[in-house]
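Protocol step 4 of 6: record predicted structures for both targets in the notebook before any analysis. Target 1:
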Amino acid sequence: MDEALLAIGERLRAAADAAGAYGLAAVHIGAVAPVAVISTAAGPDKRNYLVLFNPEILSLDGDAVEAPEGSVSMPGLQAPVSRPSRARIAYDDETGTRHDSDLEGLPARIAQHEIDQVNGIFFLERLSRLKRDMAIKRWKKSQPA
């Protein structure tokens, strides 16, 4: 693990904490790096951040659940996204040690969302074109002129 990635991880954790975000990917702080931070807390009112270096989704399982997702990139925009309820992920920790982790419910959704972001997939791309266009139109109308 090099110092540059570790620094991005720390900046990302601090930014997520300051925003009260469920998770963030490095791109949110202007870094192009395979780093994300996710909250592994089971409930929406708590945060327990875990920094993921080189994260990947190993497998997805469980029923597809539709729930609202959003992004700090487009504040105020939420759209229903369908995702599997369980995810098995792999990531490196701050020491470079590789871990596998089984997540369920909200933490699984957060991990899928942020790992997508690391891989260049914005959550709106998970919607049909019609739903995506409608969500963007609603968001644009809500922005100050």
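Target 2:
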Amino acid sequence: MIPVIVTFFISLGSLFKMLRQPEFRNFFMLVILTLAFGTVAYHSIEGWRWLDSLYFSVMTLTTIGFGDFVPATDLGKIFTIVYVFMGLGILLGFVNASGEYFRKQQMERKSWGIPNFLWDSGNTQEEMERDILENIKEYEENDIDP
């Protein structure tokens, strides 16, 4: 349970750092507005509860689609078609901005000489495997419990 809590707070901290970047902040606000728009629309068109409407909006835009909620009206189906095309572009822009932020952060760390997470691996699979095996060997030699 503790790793989940730690990961949550690390993710939350990263989100706050990313919100300082104008491009990321704009996409984040667009995603929030798109989800709010979808929630209001589904609540109005389909008569679903607010939570169900938000849930369906998130499941639709992330393309998970469990199938537990389905628009029953023709207007709801037409809205869903438009919503998916509009929302996916916004969501992909958000994911791209997030990836760009993490790529820049990784490049900064590399320029400062800070290793990437657990090991500073090379560009090839063979180098990565060698680094992992060296780390395992170091743990075994020093009797370190990972």
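Step 5 preliminary note on target 2. The first helix runs from residue 2 to 18. The chain has a mean pLDDT of 83.
Proceed to step 6 after PI sign-off.
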